[in-house]
Amino acid sequence: MQLIDTHNHLYLEEFDPEQEQLITVAKESGIEKLLLPNVDTTTIDRMHELCDRYPDFAYPMMGLHPTSVDSQYAELLKATESWLGKRSYCGIGEIGIDLYWDKSYLKEQKKVFEEQLLWSIDLRLPVAIHTREAFPEVFDILYKVGPEKLTGVFHSFTGSAAELEEIKKLTNFKIGINGVITFKNSKLSEVIQQTDLQQIVLETDAPYLAPVPYRGKRNEPVYIWKTAEKIAQVYGLPLETVVETTRKNALHLFKIENQPI
Ligand code: NI
Fold this sequence. Notes:
Blueprint: E1 3-5, H1 19-29, E2 31-36, H2 44-53, E3 58-60, H3 73-81, E4 92-98, H4 106-123, E5 127-132, H5 135-145, E6 152-154, H6 161-169, E7 173-177, H7 188-192, E8 200-202, H8 224-235, H9 239-253
Parallel strand pairs: 1-2, 2-3, 4-5, 5-6, 6-7, 7-8
Helix pairs in contact: 3-4, 4-5, 8-9
């Protein structure tokens, strides 16, 4: 069984100096690839460095995270965009709108999100969308740009059944499920049953959102198996089916070259 983690920040300092060891453990467990969304201009070099060390295992995305958007957004966006012609990326991410931490830059967050959606259309790359307490705002922008022109994933989906229905109308979008589905108080297991496994991709969002029984600790790539097991239980399917189907979903969505499906 080979599994793909579609959202992981293993390049962050939280993992120093254990990246090599964590990757060895991940590979031994059957994790085939890690897809690494960027955060902002301070994380780009670290992300590239990790991907350069593990070229057939770690794949970068380029983007500016909504919580890094402030009054300097134009410069940040320019610096982010300058990388797009320099090397290849498997997606634009992570991008979106976050009104949980700070609402003061909503206008700027919307501009930055829209601009990065346009990059993804230009480059024919999927987007990894972060949305927190901003579902209507994210959808406004998606419909402004034209969702039929876009492909992507709603990363760390924890929304309601109604929000899931809205996403299902966007036929080119997948739903990223992580450790939250294992949390005792989460409604996600119920909500997610309203969608087909064909729409789901697996992720950790490491170092955040570690699944039970590691909840509250630093998340690690290998913990993704707990999420896969929970999804298998929720759907009443063999683990192998969940892993293989979500792997195919990820390979179809993201631009990862030379990978037989
Ligand atoms: Ni993330």
